[in-house]
């Protein structure tokens, strides 16, 4: 009899616990996030995951790396992902194909190009005209790194297709090794590879494409129109978490950031992570707010147009949603 009484006393607490557990399960929403590559450039995203900013919003974010703009957009448009972190130029390419449910940019993560000009030999007095007549190992045709690279060269009155030998036949993942084993004097590299090359004596960082090209919506979170229409509150929660992470990155040191996201880059030494993050922070590559500004969007279109890659007019009002970010920041 005593055991029954004890059980009866315990049942209300058990019921409360089960109800709370069910409520939490119902409230948590899964968001499938596809990132175009695993990059130190996306540090604020990893901060949002590590600091549980998404979980604080009731979101269970499942991160997948889709390795390439084409694969990332295919995953997004086919329903394999809810949100994609990818170069904003991909949304313009999709829009140019006249789809009924195209991708809309709603939260910006990085606001400059993330590549650096690396030379095989030291060049303490480097001038951009020095690349004339040299072999330059570039990035994939139509991708943002390559288009920004060409844009910067043209800004310095250098024709990338006539004034130098531009190589674009190497896959993104093989560019670093191709530079080391090949004859090219120059290459365009992201961090932390650029810093690793410096440390190992394989190359020397002599210029920043991010500093040269200025603000551009380089990497952006986007989703299909239908997803944003049907999941506005989810998108708002997602953006709120990203904004918290952006502010956290802005207000903390490179050392603190590197230590927190080190598990995402197990093959990179901590000192390289720190110096790479510091280099990005010093040139303001990490956006401090999720708002994609119209001026930066117009710069993006100028860059694409100069590269001959702008398929059609890409209206800011159609391809960019700032309402979600603005609401989050006004809270």
TrEMBL record:
Signal sequence, start to end: 1-21
Compartments in which it is found: Periplasm
GO cellular component, one term: periplasmic space
PROSITE patterns: PROKAR_LIPOPROTEIN
Keywords: Signal
Record family assignment: Belongs to the bacterial solute-binding protein SsuA/TauA family.
Name by which UniProt lists this protein: ABC transporter substrate-binding protein
